[in-house]
Amino acid sequence: MPAAAEQLCLACGLCCNGALYDHAKVTDEERDRLAGAGIVGTDPAGLSLPCSAYRGGACQVYADRPSACRTFRCRLLRALDDGDVPLATALETVAKAKQLLRRGAEAGADLSTLAARQRIRRAGPDGGQQEAAAKARAARIYVEAVAVGLFLERHLRNDKDAREEPAVQPSA
Ligand code: SF4
Ligand code: SF4
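^ thats the input. predicted complex w/ iron/sulfur cluster below
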């Protein structure tokens, strides 16, 4: 991997921590191998994200990571590789994404994973709440969830036409 790409991915990790996708594809052979390391369960959709091997900001099974992880390149990484975005800008984009992912915490909500945001969006703008203050809080969280999703779709996810779907890493 080129040095700039490595620097970007080491600062990012959003394709490992569940922010972008719910699952990564694994082959049967990889499933068996990683199951021995306690990384892949029985989920037929593949490797569940957030990945339990992503700790301390790095992949703990890097040498044995699935082929999908080896080949995956998000929109931002491809833009960097193609020379369309300089490293400094790409790093700023990752920092901005992480800032948005943390924003729900101020409102007492977790926006950090795709699954969490999908739950919020399914509940709707009022979150199914009846009382005015709870409705207002749910509305704020909903707006934040939509904003995070749009940012990630625009800058990082590869499925540009999807709205927080699909949840499985597409091929790069
Ligand atoms: S989301 Fe993109 S930039 Fe971030 S670690 Fe994955 S491939 Fe690298
Ligand atoms: S196996 Fe490693 S590279 Fe693949 S999702 Fe998990 S932490 Fe990321």
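The pocket of iron/sulfur cluster (ligand 2) is lined by residues 16, 24, 47, 51, 53-54, 59, 61, 65-66, 69 (CB under 6 Å).
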